[in-house]
Design brief:
The structure holds 2 protein chains of 2 kinds. Chain A contains 24 helices and 10 strands. By secondary structure, chain A is an alpha/beta fold. Chain A is elongated, with a radius of gyration of 28 Å. Chain B is α/β, with parallel strands linked by helices. Helix content of chain B is about 35%, strand content about 15%. The termini of chain B are far apart. The chains are: A alpha/beta, B alpha/beta. Chains A and B meet through α1, α2, α3, α4 and α5 of A and α1, α3, α9, α10 and α11 of B. The complex binds zinc ion (ZN).
Chain lengths: ~550, ~425
């Protein structure tokens, strides 16, 4: 990772928390290592989160540990069971002294020790009873994590969250987690989810294929031949590329080089501009030469997003990000590129030249920001709000700048249901793993998540039928095989069970639904990462179902 | 798993059903388990009574590793860490509390794990891994590294590879290594002399940004250049007798003030306290969740290696959590010319016209070698020695000389450096 990219993040991370002169306060020092990732905006989102975790087993507490430490606002553990001897053995947040006491209360007290600024609550009711009598209870949380519940309760919970949401946008995100021995599964139900900052590692485009007028003028004004060797060696690569490309365009009807041969020719002409052959600025220019022929475009994901109905038909109740996206679509219609992000990488040149160049980029970015604000004004007026109220709509200057900086990384996920809810979808639910399994077998690649997913489904079938976990016996293996054959047949599979499936069934039977500490810790880490992404709306969260297979030491994500 | 009908709790170290969950994996083999695996009491006894493992590092990964090992039933755990607890550790190092700030990590972590998981024995050592002789490392079944230092890992790796005696199977100590950065991380299993080793993959590391001195001194452009100017050039000039302590807030304050002044002078924006600290301490972002994933992966592998209840990771697991849950498991291959486990000499093509100094620069730039301030000799004759001062002075004139006047084509140079935990043999190939 380049120091410059990292440095920018560091600066952004703390500039709003710490006054430039002052030393960081205690809280900033405590959270320093995470603020360098998600900045104060992400931290504020975490601190206002209210998280519900259902059941207080090892995977639950392992997950919560990773959320309490970075400082979520509040968490609740819902669990009516007492601490058992087995619990005290596999769960770091339960102790053998607490045998027989409430598992929720014991776990909360041990977790709360990790961070004084986090509030923990124990709720000792049975999740079944709450679903029955007070389903609205679940709607008061920012995120719910359901661990090792029966599929029936998972489905009811998912249903309660869907029917309790007035719009898909308001659906409380749900994470469904199951563990068994070396296996784990992480599923999600989300409503509409917006990523405001994907933290893409692709640096913003400098648009050198088509330099903005002020930059072009600046480059033209530099007469390379008249420079002494010191100045010649300090012409920044950005200028060298603009000059080389302009020459090319003059000879080629204003066209960019297209074929490989043409690109090599342009690169050679750049090399020919050298005087000695070892100028550092030219070394850099050659390394960056691709920027000359990489056309500046609106990324396809952004383009698709801008034509989405959630963007084109905003209402006055739409969150501010949709106003920005509508404005962006107006902007893109005019310009076919995104507003300029004035992040100039370091380059071999003098201080003055670098600062000068940086100012050129900043001035251009400011000009484009004003154009963008015009587009934003139009968007605001389209939904009959007044531009004077921009601040209260969350559309102030600071937010505009923030949006432009992250515009290429904005994503909107349309959401995903959990469980087989509609009768018409029941068949489809068996179809999906079959398709995934087929793909898996055809590619012959590791990992094999579909087989393990199927094993989790069959284990649940077994539990529903027998009210116990399958055991590693001949009889139980036979039953699991029957369920698997049935499910695959429903999904249109004909033929023998593939070996990946029989292996996964064997492991599921061996595991007997156990929640072993290392699998719990690993799963808890992954679930917490995703929870943080959902809460902060930063980084790109999982789309689909994640399968952890620690026998093969792999994870894989299924697209459903 | 219901067992609450049992009578009053038994005193530690153990109690019924304590390992009910873990035992599912030790009582029966799975379809992928090695046919030699025999489930039951013997393997449990070995794990819970006879095994002995070493954990290097009691920080972000170390806290997680110690906890996992204790819960999985490892009997005898040792931990080495030379650091004391800082407030910025508390966002992830969950065995520490604000009252522990300033105390040794290894000791506090060991005490906490022993109090929470009764019957576990954790022996801390507050110091450096280099303090311990080979005989110390020989007592363990395996070593798990949860370090943030490349240098310490290289040392541990080279030590464990050197310990392998083909006639003594127990001399082969698996090394499991974890590392994280933000939402990303990796875990790997190294079987010294069998799989690729840490040194084999040195070129996979991100190249650390090094700012040329001339940029720092003459043409600063980034806020980082101003900070480096303050720490690398100004500090030693102003305080010739005081070593810069990047943990001392007064020192950071001084750097921050001076870097800010220089930045203003050059019209450079963006020097902040946080950036100053980030640059001089080379801070890597770190969060609990990623550490949990990587540490758990390491401990899963330790458990599998120790019990043989499932096949081991062969040999590299990489997690990228920034876009969905993406991971990649692959076999990293041995590098035949690896200076630690390969034994073949490394070829170094050089130009005849190069000076010795140019060769040293080229050597320092090589990502697969990473030698800082190397000393060189050929056939027992010193070409350049970095220390002691009198020998440095004596060999300094060679720096200006052309290679063609110092060595013959194909000569094998011996390279030593503080960052190299071994002597490197380099074959120079003189080219026109
Ligand atoms: Zn090696």
């Amino acid at each position: 990772m380049a120091q410059t990219a990292e440095a920018k993040t560091i600066e952004e991370a703390t500039v709003t928390i710490v006054s430039p002169q002052g030393r960081p306060d205690e809280k900033t020092r405590r959270y320093d290592r995470q603020l360098r990732l998600w900045a104060s905006s992400g931290q504020a989102a975490l601190e206002s989160a209210r998280i519900l975790v259902i059941s207080g087993g090892a995977t639950s507490t392992s997950t919560l540990k990773n959320l309490v430490l970075p400082g979520i606002g509040e968490f609740t553990i819902l669990d009516h069971l007492p601490v058992t001897y087995a619990d005290a053995g596999n769960n770091f947040f339960l102790h053998v002294n607490g045998i027989g006491k409430s598992r929720a209360e014991e776990a909360v007290s041990h977790l709360a020790e990790l961070n004084d600024s986090v509030k923990g609550k124990a709720d000792t009711r049975d999740v079944n009873a709450v679903l029955e009598n007070e389903p609205e209870f679940f709607l008061s949380f920012t995120l719910i994590i359901a661990v090792n519940l029966s599929p029936e309760i998972e489905d009811r919970l998912a249903q309660a969250l869907r029917s309790g949401a007035s719009t898909p946008r308001d659906t409380v995100p749900l994470m469904i987690v199951r563990t068994a021995g070396f296996y784990a599964m992480i599923g999600t139900q989300i409503g509409e989810h917006t990523v405001v900052d994907a933290h893409s590692e692709t640096p913003p485009s400098l648009r050198l294929d088509n330099a903005f007028p002020a930059l072009l003028e600046y480059a033209r004004a530099i007469d390379l031949d008249s420079l002494d060797s010191t100045d010649f060696g300090h012409v920044p690569w950005v200028v060298l590329l603009v000059k080389a490309l302009e020459n090319w365009k003059q000879k080629h009807d204003g066209q960019l080089p297209k074929s490989y041969a043409e690109k090599q020719e342009l690169k050679k002409s750049l090399e020919k501009m050298r005087r000695r052959g070892d100028e550092e600025n030219f070394d850099e220019a050659v390394a960056q030469a691709y920027r000359m022929w990489t056309p500046t475009v609106v990324p396809s994901e952004t383009r698709a997003l801008l034509s989405d109905p959630s963007v084109t038909t905003i209402t006055s109740s739409s969150p501010s990000i949709f106003y920005f996206l509508l404005a962006l679509s107006h902007f893109v219609q005019q310009h076919s590129y995104l507003p300029l992000v004035p992040t100039l990488p370091d380059m071999h040149t003098t201080t003055d030249t670098y600062v000068e160049l940086q100012n050129l980029f900043r001035a251009q970015a400011d000009r484009e920001m004003l154009v963008f604000e015009d587009c934003l004004k139009r968007a605001v007026e389209e939904v009959h709000e007044t531009w004077e109220e921009r601040e209260s709509l969350g559309l102030g200057r600071a937010e505009v700048k923030e949006f432009i900086r992250n515009a290429a990384g904005v994503r909107v996920f349309k959401g995903k249901k959990w469980g087989s809810v509609e009768p018409s979808e029941i068949e489809a639910s068996d179809q999906k793993p079959v398709t995934a399994l087929q793909n898996e077998l055809e590619s012959g690649m590791l990992p094999a998540p579909a087989a393990v997913y199927l094993a989790f489904l069959c284990s649940a079938d077994f539990y529903s039928a027998h009210a116990r976990q399958p055991q590693p016996t001949e009889a139980d293996n036979q039953l699991l095989t029957t369920y698997a054959t049935q499910r695959l047949a429903n999904g249109g599979w004909n033929g023998e069970l593939p070996e990946t499936v029989t292996t996964a069934l064997g492991e599921i039977a061996r595991a007997q639904g156990s929640d072993i500490p290392t699998t719990a810790a690993l799963t808890g880490g992954l679930v917490a990462q995703e929870a943080i992404k959902f809460l902060t709306r930063q980084y790109v969260p999982i789309e689909g179902t994640c399968i952890v297979d620690l026998i093969r030491s792999t994870t894989g994500t299924l697209p459903f | 798993m219901g067992d609450i009908s049992l009578p009053a709790p038994l005193p530690p170290p153990t109690w019924p059903n304590r390992f009910q969950h873990v035992d599912t994996l030790l009582d029966h083999p799975g379809p992928s388990t090695d046919p030699d695996f025999v489930g039951g009491e013997a393997v449990k006894r070995f794990l819970r009574e006879d095994s002995k493992v070493l954990v290097i590092g009691a920080g972000g990964l170390g806290c997680e590793i110690l906890t996992n090992l204790a819960l999985m039933g490892f009997a005898d755990i040792h931990v080495i860490d030379m650091d004391t607890i800082d407030i910025s550790n508390l966002n992830r190092q969950f065995l520490f509390r604000p009252k522990d700030v300033g105390k040794p990590k290894a000791i506090i972590a060991a005490e906490f794990v022993m109090s929470r998981v009764p019957g576990t024995k954790v022996t801390p050592y507050f110091g450096k891994i280099q303090d311990k002789p080979e005989s110390y490392y020989m007592q363990f079944n395996l070593v798990i590294c949860g370090l943030d230092s490349v240098e310490a890992r290289r040392w541990m790796n080279a030590t464990l590879v050197a310990m392998v005696d083909p006639d003594v199977p127990e001399s082969l100590k698996p090394m499991i290594d974890g590392g994280t950065e933000g939402f990303k991380g990796q875990a790997r299993v190294i079987l010294p002399s069998i799989t690729s080793c840490y040194e084999c993959s040195l070129d996979m590391l991100n190249k650390q940004t090094v700012f040329p001195i001339c940029t720092i001194a003459n043409t600063p452009r980034l806020p980082e250049h101003c900070i480096e100017w303050a720490s690398v050039l100004e500090w030693p000039k102003v305080f010739p007798d005081k070593k810069l302590d990047t943990d001392d807030p007064e020192h950071i304050q001084w750097l921050f003030t001076h870097a800010s002044t220089r930045a203003r002078e050059f019209k450079i924006e963006g020097v902040t306290w946080s950036l100053t600290q980030g640059v001089v301490k080379n801070i890597i972002p770190a969060i609990a969740s990623t550490n949990a994933v990587i540490a758990a992966s390491c401990c899963t592998e330790a458990f599998k290696l120790m019990t043989n209840c499932a096949p081991r990771l062969d040999n590299y697991f990489m997690l990228i959590g920034t876009e969905g849950v993406y991971s990649y498991t692959f076999q990293h291959e041995r590098r035949p010319e690896c200076p630690v486990c390969g034994g073949e000499t490394i070829d170094m093509p050089v130009k005849k016209e190069w000076t010795l100094e140019r060769l040293i620069e080229a050597l320092e730039e090589r990502q697969d070698i990473q030698a800082k301030k190397p000393s060189l000799s050929v056939n027992g004759r010193s070409l350049y020695l970095q220390a002691p001062p009198q020998l440095e002075r004596a060999t300094r004139p060679n720096l200006e000389k052309k290679l063609v006047d110092l060595v013959n084509d194909g000569d094998e140079l011996t390279v030593t450096a503080g960052s190299l935990p071994f002597n490197l043999t380099l074959r120079v190939l003189l080219k026109d």
